Amino acid sequence: MTIKQFPKDFLWGGAISANQTEGAWNEGGRGISNIDLIPHGNNRQSIKLGYKKGVLDKDEYYPSHTGIDFYHRYKEDIALMAEMGLKVFRTSISWSRIYPNGDEEIPNKEGIAYYIDLFKTCKAHNMELLVTLAHFDIPMGIVEEYNGWKNRETIDLYVKFAETCFEQFGEYVNYWIPFNEINVVLHSPFSGGGLYFNDDENREQVLYQAAHYMLVASAKAVESCHRITPKAKIGCMIAGGSFYPYSCNPEDVWQSIIDERTNTFFVDVQAKGKYPYYMESYFKSKNITIDIESDSDILKQTVDFVAFSYYASRTSIADTSRAETNEGNIIISAKNPHLKTSNWGWVIDPLGLRITMNQIYERFEKPLFVVENGLGAKDIIESDGTIRDDYRIDYMHQHMLAMYDGIQDGVPLLGYISWGIIDLVSASTGEMRKRYGMIYVDKDDDGTGTFERRKKKSFDWYKKIIQQNGIEI
Question: Alpha-carbon distance 74 to 70, whole Å?
């Protein structure tokens, strides 16, 4: 048996987010977040996309209100992750747990105390921390009173939140990310940035203006992090995955270039300190006006590493009537006839991870970090109580082999973090049955269940990967 060894200090880890796990939505002084208004069921997509305003409705079920009860069970969960041997734990901070309305003068002491204890618990188990400041999370007070990321004032509110986090938690956290999958704001505006739209608004103008304010806020957070916690590293993050042309038809090739640019221009700003040349013509073609020049100096505050999630590649086609589309993920693309899909229609493309790694590093020349990768699947508890998720093991194994090849290509990779190390609420569908974890949580789509945790077969498999710092072939 051959073991492909990874670099000596490679960070094997697992990830969750506050909004998908914590629950306790109205405990500990926490205010209402945008995610708390996104229900499970028929209205979910229209609210996520900003077409319908989110409100609390007694007839709806809101998965974030209970999550997986991580808020009350984090010591138990961190102990399980430590048993697995995680080198790094990625989580996020609920903005409305620190500033309930978003514009208070003084942060919420209960929220600060909760995260300090969570981070101390991780450190006691010798786990590094990678913390996302805003993971599809913005206080509804900011959305309702300031129009959220439509308003430049939100930049300062975010920076105050970020600096509070650096000051309060900086001694525990060595890796930071300002925004989770920042590019998702273009595709899922309310969940990605708390945006909804009036009938008379130019949707694309609003989206790109909001994205610009988020990029300015990110740059200011980078400056603050380097100043307040100079030993820490702060990166940026996008929803990754290369765009393949559907065919060698030049129109499809050109469409793939356009799609790739739209997806990754955020990293140009965050890693290179300026908008790429092509965005000027793109904005002009869409009748979008963004005042970039007044923010050009702060945008020069660039990140230390580039992080990305990778679940699937995408396939671009100039005329969508020529092919069947694959709508499993939030970014719709043509169906790739060469690839299989998961139960939820997500393309399974391990080689695409190697391709994505090489393309991102070639373009930005910053260390990379795979901070999300995993398979959402239906798990069955066998009669003997075991969960034999060989399909998840195979998925991760194939992606790890591709990642290893990318490292051999010369791409500097800080680590690999499995998404949903413990079962959590799916961000895309709000379901629990779409499980990613290596730790099972007894909760159903309607919120019922005991919340009992149990290990899946993949738990011990990943534990062995981490112990030997390598994968078997």
Answer: 5
How many whole angstroms separate alpha carbon 344 and alpha carbon 373? 15
Q: Cα 136 vs. chain centroid, distance in angstroms?
A: 8
Q: Which element (helix H / strand E) includes 134? A: strand 128-134
**Any residues with CB less than 8 A from the CB of 155 and at least 6 apart, and which?**
213, 216, 217, 220
Burial class (CB in 10 A: 0-12, 13-18, 19+), 451: middle
Residue 89 three-state SS: strand
* Six token digits for residue 240: 């990754």
Provide the Cα torsion 17, 391, 63, 127; round to 10°.
Answer: -20
Question: Rounded to an integer, what distance in angstroms lies between the CA atom of residue 90 and that of residue 150?
Answer: 29
User: How many Å from the N-terminal Cα to the C-terminal Cα in the chain?
Assistant: 7
Q: What residues pair up with 22 in beta bridges, in sequence order?
A: none
Q: How far apart are CA 442 and CA 309, in angstroms?
A: 26
70 Cβ contact partners less than 8 Å away, ≥ 6 residues apart: 16, 21, 22, 23, 77, 422
If residue 255 lies in a helix (H) or strand (E), which one and from where to where?
helix 250-267
**pLDDT (0 to 100) of residue 1:** 79
Using the predicted structure, report yes or no on whether residue 330 has a pLDDT greater than 80.
no
| DSSP secondary structure code for residue 428 in this structure | T
Quote the tokens at residue 195.
Answer: 């945006």
Tens-digit pLDDT profile for residues 377-433: 999 999 999 999 999 999 999 999 999 999 999 999 999 999 999 999 999 999 999
Q: Which tens digit of pLDDT belongs to each residue from 151-175?
A: 999 999 999 999 999 999 999 999 9
Q: Which pTM does this prediction carry? A: 0.97
Cα–Cα distance measured from residue 401 to residue 107, given in angstroms and rounded to the nearest whole number:
44
pLDDT band at residue 329 under the 50/70/90 scheme: low
* Averaged pLDDT for residues 347-353: 97
User: How far is residue 5's CA from residue 186's CA, in Å, rounded to a whole number?
Assistant: 38
pLDDT in tens, 98-115: 999 999 999 999 999 999
H helix intervals, 54-152: 70-84, 95-98, 109-124, 140-146
Task: Report d(CA 108, CA 115) in Å as an integer.
Answer: 11
| Phi, psi for residue 102 in degrees, rounded to 5 | 105, -20
Burial, 370: exposed, middle or buried (Cβ in 10 Å; 0-12, 13-18, 19+)? buried
Answer positive or negative: Cα dihedral of 16, 17, 19, 23. positive
- Nearest 5°: phi and psi at 430? 75, 10
Structure tokens at 131: 């913390």
Active site residues: 181, 372
